[in-house]
TrEMBL record, chains A, B:
Lineage: Bacteria, Pseudomonadati, Pseudomonadota, Alphaproteobacteria, Rhodobacterales
One annotated GO molecular function: hydrolase activity
Superkingdom, taxonomy of origin: Bacteria
Protein name: Haloacid dehalogenase-like hydrolase
UniProt KW keywords: Hydrolase
Signal peptide start-end: none
Amino acid sequence: MSLRPMIVVMIVMAGAGQADPLPSWNDTDAKARITEFVARVTDVDGDSYVSPAERIAVFDNDGTLWVEQPVYTQLLFAVNRVAELAREDPSILTSDALKAAAAGDIKGVFAQGRDGLFEVISASHSGISVDEFTEVVQGWMQTARHPDTGRAFDDMTYQPMLELLRYLRDEGFTTYIVSGGSIHFMRAFADAAYNIPPQQVIGTILNSSYQVIDGDPVVMKDPGLFFNDDKEGKPIAIDTRIGRRPIFAAGNSDGDFQMLEWTTAGEGARFGMIVHHTDAEREYAYDRDSSIGGLERGLDEAGDRGWLLVDMAEDWKTIWSSGE
Amino acid sequence: MSLRPMIVVMIVMAGAGQADPLPSWNDTDAKARITEFVARVTDVDGDSYVSPAERIAVFDNDGTLWVEQPVYTQLLFAVNRVAELAREDPSILTSDALKAAAAGDIKGVFAQGRDGLFEVISASHSGISVDEFTEVVQGWMQTARHPDTGRAFDDMTYQPMLELLRYLRDEGFTTYIVSGGSIHFMRAFADAAYNIPPQQVIGTILNSSYQVIDGDPVVMKDPGLFFNDDKEGKPIAIDTRIGRRPIFAAGNSDGDFQMLEWTTAGEGARFGMIVHHTDAEREYAYDRDSSIGGLERGLDEAGDRGWLLVDMAEDWKTIWSSGE
Ligand SMILES: [Ca+2]
Ligand SMILES: [Ca+2]
């Protein structure tokens, strides 16, 4: 027996330690702050060590993990589905918002305000069992294309964020989605797109009911809102669902403010991060005045609160998971 | 180098395989059905194999994992806490139910019906942050004693069920509590008592709000019911929280009927189990006529539905986790 096998093992391990977990991030301050934080909370001998059970990381979805411009993907789905349902039964178009949706007129839907918008979401997400709805969303995702790029939506997830999710999981974190998007819509693709299983998807919840139909018990999706997972709703949902205050939170709009505020106010090492959309060339540039993903308070207070403002144009080498 | 090390390893493994995972269960049909089911769904080469991600097991709490007679533990806590709060501020006793609670008169609380009962729960579970509430419950559990036995409540969990939880986890299952008990009350002891972490505790949810108090963001517990995790509520909560239909469900009352119905109606191998309280000597004997843990439909239909009726007196060698 010689020492050679042991030496080989040590070289392999050193190589693994040096591999860049975030290759699509430029070598800017943003990347350094993330990796420093992870090193601190995983250092068993350090003052900031956090046990794996407490390594909870929460991520907003739209505009944080995938594209949300020029219009939320879920709203595109909703509009398409209302049109499809109306072809079978035109009598469902009982309002101006629903008529606009059936005509593919998204501006017309927005013109009806929050209530009109919710009417379209509600009509397109109900009257169907959860299992059937999941299949409908998955079928839609296979053929739907982004209005500006013509690409599939699962090609328009952010590669640097996929790397961040994987990196955190490799370092013992549990990663959750905490989004204003509706829970059954997101679950239909979250496992495939992000490696986030259904029990780690937290979102807006529409009504549902338990029914036994011809002897077959199902959970049915019903009209109406049960819980709005936005703003103050995010910490409340995290408490209800996870029961632990996260140590890492990432968002992109003021809808994430309370989630970041609550996360970073906890004791010990905490990390708050805002994806700032600054890249009009490769993606979109928007913040204060955007009706989608509006970011004002977060932009004003991130510095004082020690939250990382990720500058997409500066900090991200690649944007899209498709590589394009 | 000799073959000896390899032989030692094989003997150790064979020994582990023969160890009884359920030593507090008698060698009756109940135990055999459980271990056969687990063997089937974990046999990679069998037709009934279920991947670890899909091995979801859900357990009711009161009367399934711990004692619920002569009165729900949570109600004892609530009555104690109302009395404590009333000593500080007697003006909170605005109803007959609350006055009865403050006097320790549980029958008087019941006399005020469901509304009175909920009033006591609501008053004793609100006006406090989640973190503080958790400490209050944990403090109470240390000193509170069961009215009949004088023992601590965490000594009155069921040893056979603790073994079943551990056995399932060892076989790759994820174990959840799905109970009518309220979520923050159960979380205060579920990790210590059952090794079930907060994100796997599903229960009734009372209102809460996000508040920033003197610069300190907290989730506050508020009066009122948000979600009742009983009967039809159980499958709905499982869908919302876990997003997968369980393959194993255990309960003890008709409040668990829909959870078992939905679980066992799924495709492939499924297991439904009802803990039937038949042991007046070592525990309590009750079913159809009990106002706590009433079991009628489940008792009538368990046979036809293939659900296991666990006969506590016959099937359990030991009852209590304390060994007494
Ligand atoms: Ca967003
Ligand atoms: Ca029960």
